[in-house]
Amino acid sequence: MALRSLKVLELSGLAPVPFCGMLLADYGASVIRIDRKDDQHNTRLDRLARGKRSISIDLKMPAAIDIFRRLSSQADVLIEPFRPGVMEKLGLGPDVLLNDNKRLIYTRVSGYGQNGSLAMKGGHDINYLSISGLLSMFGRSNKKPHAPLNLAADFAGGGLLAAYAIMSAIFERQTTNLGQVLDLSLAEGSAYVSSWMWTSRDLPMVWFGNQRGENLLDGGAHFYDTYETSDGLYMAVGALEPQFYNQLLIGLGLAPNDEDHHQMNINKMKKKFEQIFKTKTQQEWTEIFNKLDACCTPVLNWNSAYKYKHNQERENFSLTNENKTKLVPIPVPKFSLSKLPSINRPAPFSGEHTIEILHEIGYSKENIEQLIKNNIVQNTERSKSKL
Q: SUPFAM superfamilies given for it (predicted)?
């Protein structure tokens, strides 16, 4: 497995940090999630915990701090999701933990970064997008900005960038033998993943004007948009290049050599496309465009994406063992040599592996019994293994 020897500590949170931990676990890293004692709410909401182990400890107790420091002294990576200063107040800031373990990659994932006027403020994906400049670019013409769920900040600019930064720091550590602190702001990550949108602003063939929804890739072009079919479903059209556009016109029953069909009259062509697409079902259009190279594909929902022929051939989705109706995407990219763990590894209950992990870091049976008795650590029912 690609990351087999990597040891990761993930402090429990939601969205970006669990996603980062899942990416590392899916490629073979050993990921321990540090859960707060008696906090079942966040762990129930965390749907990105497959293949991880969980230890539940009360970090307000000095003995729990000792446990955490012992864990981090043996780890390669720590990922924490708190506002600036929280870890320092616990006595677990980077100065302390890097002194214990000079090779530790201390990864801080916060909304606005470790400093700046917004650093101590709360926020969510939509807020991070708003100050990054990215939110202003999402939405239809003459409509208010519209956030694309929480993909851009939490997952693209957050968890995915964090995993990339961690691997970069580990690569550098091979030369320096030193860990370091990674300060990842979700707002800055959002801006970074939108770099192309910033650097392409001077391309008139992409940006027709300054208004969102009126440009090449945001719904302003009739050949790059979605269209409703007769059964209330949709087709996605991305026929940017002339050769694809010609094939699109053929599929729609329009003459590709008709100059009128090549004019950039957005309203005229959109209305024509809307009318034509509504004459057939999504399946009928799919069958037509499967025979053409027109960049025209069906807009699939969760269930239909799984059943789609190409996705079946590539095995792009899988049903989980926990619930045979729950679909999940498989890890990508596919490796030619490295064998990756199954995605059907169960997510842990909070504290499920407390006893197991304490044993691994040197605590005796008597020590563990005392820690449980004193409510410093928590052991869940599913982990009723023998001490």
A: CoA-transferase family III (CaiB/BaiF)
158 close to 19: Cβ distance less than 8 angstroms: yes
Name the residues annotated as catalytic: 124, 154
The pLDDT score that the predictor gives to residue 357 is: 97
pLDDT of 197 reads: 93
Is residue 256 reached through a cis peptide bond, with omega within 30 degrees of 0 on the bond before it?
Answer: no
- Give the CA count within 13 Å in the CB-facing half-sphere of 57: 28
Q: Enumerate the β-bridge partners of residue 378.
A: 56
Q: Which residue blocks in the chain are alpha helix, DSSP H?
A: 16-26, 40-45, 62-73, 86-89, 94-100, 125-132, 161-176, 186-193, 195-199, 242-251, 266-277, 282-290, 302-307, 309-314, 354-360, 365-373
Longest Cα–Cα distance of the chain, Å, equals 85
Q: What are phi and psi of 249, to 5 degrees?
A: -60, -40
The enclosing H or E element of 107 equals: strand 105-110
d(CA 226, CA 170): 42
For the chain, 387 residues long, the average pLDDT of each consecutive 10-residue run is 92 96 96 87 84 95 97 98 97 98 98 97 96 94 93 97 98 98 98 95 88 92 96 97 95 81 73 97 98 98 91 89 75 90 90 96 95 93 52
The domain segmentation of the chain, as residue ranges, is 7-193+325-378, 224-299
Q: Which residue has the tokens 């293949």?
A: 51
Phi-psi region of 362 (alpha: psi -120 to 50; beta: other; left: phi over 0): left
**What's the DSSP call for residue 85?**
T
Amino acid at 78: L
Beta-bridged to residue 364, according to DSSP, are none
CATH number at 7-193+325-378: 3.40.50.10540
Rounded distance between C-alpha atoms, residue 288 and residue 281, angstroms: 11
The vertex-192 CA angle with 8 and 334, nearest 5°, equals 55
Q: What is the pLDDT of residue 45?
A: 85
The predicted-structure confidence for 231-260, as pLDDT tens digits, reads as follows 999 999 999 999 999 999 999 999 887 666
Q: Note whether 27 and 51 are within 8 A (CB).
A: no
Please provide residue 91's backbone torsions phi and psi, each rounded to the nearest 5 degrees.
80, 25
Distance of CA 95 to the CA centre of its chain: 29
> How high is the pLDDT of residue 327?
85
